[in-house]
User: Which sequence fits this backbone?
């Protein structure tokens, strides 16, 4: 061939290669991405929007309903009959905070939400997944997350493969979808041949919730924590089939499945024990979906075998349930129609110590509902059953003689909306200074510590009036024998306070008067190394092997504790750790042994070797099951256990995992009577024969009503 022709051919080939590099994408081809977005909570500063605000505003302005509203105020105590159509609750409520609610039904959606475009869902964004609530990362406010990540500044490609639990290779022949969370918004992406890919900002936090693979629902079991997008170029997502818990809400009147479902997991333990959650707070996990059943997946936080949830559907009551998110299964819950209460709060709405509580008339014990009113002006409280109720504004724990500022009796009608007007009084309670010192002797290896100042006594409010002072905020001085830290003064209410050094848990009680108190001195005792050995009772020194031993220093009467410090075993039955000189309480709580608590005296110059004798447990673990679905024991369910023909007694009882453990003192037969369990038919009493050193697991079948 002519050399000139070779040159021409070479130039043509070089041009073609250059053109291919320009035209073709740099990375692998995209999988189809299903841009299904919805919002979920991420932290206390987040505000979420939804389409339900316009629906509620329409009805409140008279366009959504032709009927009136019940109205109750603190001044007139009048009630006008009527009802109102409830709006669509499918969108996610916003969290509590200042500047919330100006006549709309949502919990604090602000006008800026619609302006930013990245905070919640607009009227055309509703999907079958509804809105999600996670925790940990604030949402993106400067762009619309529903646009392609490849067009965003600093975006990266997140890709990975789907693996089934205990399988040695990815599901390369399977397809479906994967639900993920990206900076406060959830998104459904396609899975093709076991692989997925999507775009996200490089610094975005990505969470994996659940999957639908080959038309089968599955729960994501790993990763179970957020991943930074720029570190997620090749993620292995492990799923577990038949372990995803689902919840189906059923009408108690028609027997049909209900739509517009809301599920809340409260992070306040006390509120989680009440029948009504009030409204979701910033730290609570929430799922809102247009249709049921609802998948109880990673949007509700870390899984557990006995997770307390509150669930409702539009126009129906709230129901508190306990679910097993580890074993999964299907749950059906019956709901009755309800009404709602529109709360109009006036006065000092920034007070942190004021609670709104609902109770039935003449009722005692915990309230039906409790919610802080701080930062709110008006709210809609849905899912309140028809009838007469008493609303109070209180400060202090409900069981510690709280101060009641206002009390109103009102009535809720079926399908109606009652307006309740309450005024929060100004906080004019006297406060005084509290300050002092903390001495930390040499030998304590505390990288950091804190001082917890908690009020005690009747009428106190530990939840709102507890003050924590960090060591970094104290003035430190090295003196012979250790370090002296000067703290305070801090402003506290008049009264008594328990002051603890954490994490050691050592402290004292101090009284604060109108003149203040500046000499609250705590001297941490010198640390000593001790050894604890656990042996079997009557076993001739044979070692017992509990997983943990816990310890706590003995405290003066009236000083609230901070929980015992857990210590793992150094070797089988042997535990080595450090405690302060003085009286120390040792405890063992292990499923295989009868719980044991023992006080020992630790000396500065002694051997400080102690032995705890443990008795192998004898008793039962009661497990509840409904058609193959594990039913965890609710906080309020307690069986009655009676000995038959002998003197055996119950030594200890309580929930453990999804079951209920009962340890007894003697061999023999025991009659078990189950309590009333809401949503299930009664179970006839039955007998269990307990044998020495044996924990019998008994599966109890339940039938839903």
Assistant:
């Amino acid at each position: 061939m002519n050399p000139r022709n070779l040159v021409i051919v070479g130039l043509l080939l070089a041009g073609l290669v250059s053109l291919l590099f320009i035209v073709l994408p740099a990375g692998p081809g995209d999988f189809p991405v299903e841009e299904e977005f919805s919002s979920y909570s991420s932290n206390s500063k987040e505000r979420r929007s939804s389409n339900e605000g316009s629906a509620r505003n329409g009805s409140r302005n008279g366009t959504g309903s032709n009927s009136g509203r019940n109205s109750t105020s603190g001044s007139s105590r009048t009630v006008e009959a009527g009802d109102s159509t409830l709006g669509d609750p499918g969108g996610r409520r916003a969290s509590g905070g200042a500047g919330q609610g100006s006549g709309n039904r949502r919990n604090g959606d602000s006008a800026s939400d619609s302006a930013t475009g990245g905070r919640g869902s607009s009227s055309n964004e509703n999907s079958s997944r509804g809105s999600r609530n996670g925790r940990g990362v604030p949402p993106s406010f400067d762009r619309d997350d529903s646009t392609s990540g490849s067009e965003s500044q600093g975006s990266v490609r997140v890709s990975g493969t789907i693996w089934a639990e205990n399988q040695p290779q990815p599901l390369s022949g399977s397809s479906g979808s994967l639900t993920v969370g990206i900076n406060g918004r959830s998104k459904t992406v396609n899975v093709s041949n076991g692989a997925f890919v999507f775009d996200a900002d490089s610094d975005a936090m990505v969470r994996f919730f659940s999957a639908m693979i080959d038309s089968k629902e599955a729960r994501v079991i790993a990763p179970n924590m957020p991943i930074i997008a720029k570190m997620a170029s090749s993620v292995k997502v492990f799923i577990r089939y038949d372990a995803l818990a689902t919840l189906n809400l059923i009408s108690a009147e028609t027997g049909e499945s209900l739509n517009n479902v809301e599920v809340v997991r409260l992070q306040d333990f006390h509120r989680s024990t009440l029948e009504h959650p009030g409204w979701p707070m910033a730290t609570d996990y929430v799922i809102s979906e247009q249709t049921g059943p609802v998948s109880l997946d990673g949007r509700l936080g870390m899984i557990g075998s006995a997770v307390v949830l509150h669930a409702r559907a539009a126009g129906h009551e709230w129901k508190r349930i306990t679910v097993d998110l580890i074993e999964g299964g299907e749950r059906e819950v019956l709901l009755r129609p309800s009404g709602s209460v529109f709360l109009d709060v006036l006065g000092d709405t920034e007070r942190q110590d004021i609670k709104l509580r609902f109770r039935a008339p003449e009722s005692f014990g915990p309230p039906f509902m409790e919610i802080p009113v701080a930062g709110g002006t008006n709210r809609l409280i849905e899912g309140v059953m028809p009838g007469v109720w008493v609303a109070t504004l209180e400060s202090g724990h409900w069981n510690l003689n709280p101060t009641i500022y206002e009390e109103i009796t009102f009535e809720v009608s079926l399908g109606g909306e009652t307006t309740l007007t309450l005024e929060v009084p100004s906080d004019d309670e006297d406060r005084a200074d509290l300050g002092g010192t903390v001495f930390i002797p040499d030998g304590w290896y505390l990288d950091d510590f804190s001082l917890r100042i908690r009020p005690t006594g009747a009428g106190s409010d530990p939840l709102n009036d507890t003050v924590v002072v960090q060591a970094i905020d104290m003035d430190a001085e090295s003196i012979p024998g250790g370090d002296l830290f000067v703290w305070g003064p801090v402003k506290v209410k008049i009264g008594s306070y328990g002051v603890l050094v954490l994490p050691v848990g050592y402290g004292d009680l101090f009284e604060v008067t109108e003149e203040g108190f500046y000499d609250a001195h705590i001297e941490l005792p010198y640390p000593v190394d001790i050894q604890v050995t656990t042996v079997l009772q009557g076993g001739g020194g044979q070692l017992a092997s509990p997983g943990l031993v816990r310890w706590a220093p003995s405290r003066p009467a009236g000083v609230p504790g901070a929980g015992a410090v857990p210590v793992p075993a150094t070797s089988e039955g042997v535990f080595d750790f450090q405690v302060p000189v003085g009286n120390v309480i040792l405890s063992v709580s292990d499923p295989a042994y009868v719980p044991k608590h023992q006080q020992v005296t630790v000396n500065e110059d002694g051997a400080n070797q102690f032995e705890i004798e443990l008795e192998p447990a004898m008793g039962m673990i009661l497990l509840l099951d409904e058609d193959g679905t594990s039913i965890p024991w609710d906080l309020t369910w307690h069986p009655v256990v009676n000995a038959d023909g002998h003197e055996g007694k119950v030594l200890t009882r309580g929930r453990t995992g999804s079951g209920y453990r009962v340890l007894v003192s003697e061999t023999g037969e025991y009659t078990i009577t189950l309590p009333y369990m809401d949503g299930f038919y009664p179970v006839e009493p039955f007998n269990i024969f307990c044998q020495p050193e044996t924990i019998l697991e008994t599966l109890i079948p339940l039938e839903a009503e």
